[in-house]
Amino acid sequence: MEIALQKYAFDPILAVLAFSLAIAVAGTLVLLFDRIGGAFGKVVEPSSQKLASVEGLRGILAFSVATHHAYCWYFYTQTGVWTTGNSIIFSHLASFGVMQFFFLSGFLFWRKLMKRGRIPFKDFIISRYIRIAPAFYACFGSAILIGLAGTGFHLQVPMGTLLLSLLSWFLFAIPGMLAVNQADILRITCGVAWTLALEWQFYFLLPFLGWYSRKPSRLWHFALTFTAVLLTGFFLRHESTHAAYLETVGIFVGGLGKFMLIGFGGGILIAALDARIQSWQRFLLPGRNWILVGLYLAYLIIHGNAMAMEVFLVAGFALVVQGADLFGFLTCRAVRLLGIISYPLYLVHGIVYYLAMKARGGMHAVALPVYLGQTALCFTVIILLATLIHVLIERPTMKFSERIARRAQLPQTGLLQDPSAGQA
User: Fold this and answer.
1) 127 in a structural domain
2) Measured between alpha carbons, how far is residue 408 from residues 55, 69, 171, 332, 413 in Å?
3) Spatial separation of the C-alpha atoms in residues 325 and 196, rounded to whole Å
4) Residue ranges for the chain with pLDDT beneath 50
5) In Å, how far from its chain's centre is CA 299?
6) By residue range, what is the domain housing residue 394?
7) Rounded to whole angstroms, how far apart are CA atoms 295 and 309?
8) Assign residue 172 a region: left if phi > 0, alpha if psi is -120 to 50, beta otherwise?
9) Chain-centre distance for alpha carbon 82
10) Side-chain-facing half-sphere of 59: CA atoms under 13 Å
11) For the chain, how big is the Rg over CA atoms in Å?
12) Which among 351, 352, 65, 357 has a CA at the least distance from the CA of 185?
């Protein structure tokens, strides 16, 4: 594995500065909200230290993705290309957040499957829809309206094309992240919907995966099954020269196989080996937070094979679910409060960046200090909007989802995890 030096000498310093700025703004705002109204007070008292670490981790993961996209917007305004330049740190911040959200889903649901062997499909899907849909429709409906406003609300495409594009977003972008009336909704939202599309694919598969969960040895069967799915996707893409539609099918199938193995599969592996990990980590207790820091830093600064890099994240996540808290950082009140609004924060941050670019007069370059100041203001607005969405939309509908989940004994997971999930 090759350690790549940054082209820009300021990159590590800028990374620390930008992320510290994000956390400082977020922490100040959420603590202010807590002091004023206590709106979060009832849901930030986890019953175990382990759950507190996981709750705090969700807030950091959501903000790592938001920080990554802020950097992408900087280069986009400079060059017109959506990139993080040559920055390894900022490039890895997105996968650092997204992959561990997938780990969370895999870990919590697989643990439930190991206990019960099955998940009731009807209650499960209804619970998931009620949990995911309201905040998603509110945020992405707003993004679509913003996009349509940019076209002057004049029809730019055939009505059938418009309806199909709207349907794709109604279905959580599972059919693809399509432009709506030629408005680029993917850019307005920073393209975050692809992760929810994968979550839904995982949800639809999960009730049928109970057989693999009944014995730890069947993890090999799980790995072989989705390796075959991954290879099938590659084969279909290769054959797409003979039939164009096969490329789309191949991308869909190959992506599912990939993320079942290295995304959800990371959490599944940790759930299956939970007892052994508890035994192993006893030897690491005195230094487990230092090990966690080392693993996360290694992932963010080392350039290497994606599969090999995954080992750092899986190992780090295993320590967090066993209670590692980064010297109390993950369990401090501000970070845990940030975890509570992580889902709306994840959905809304791209919209705020897009509107900020429009408000300043379009996609033109600005000096880095000016951009950092504008980004700090964006973070403030993001927290405000995420809080409103949580209080007005997410929290009320979450109660219905929790009621169904309790009836079916289901956890609330990953990016969408509720504070009670650790008891599932």
Assistant:
1) yes
2) 23, 37, 24, 32, 15
3) 27
4) 1-10, 47, 418-424
5) 17
6) 11-155+184-213+287-309+320-370+387-423
7) 10
8) left
9) 19
10) 30
11) 21
12) 351
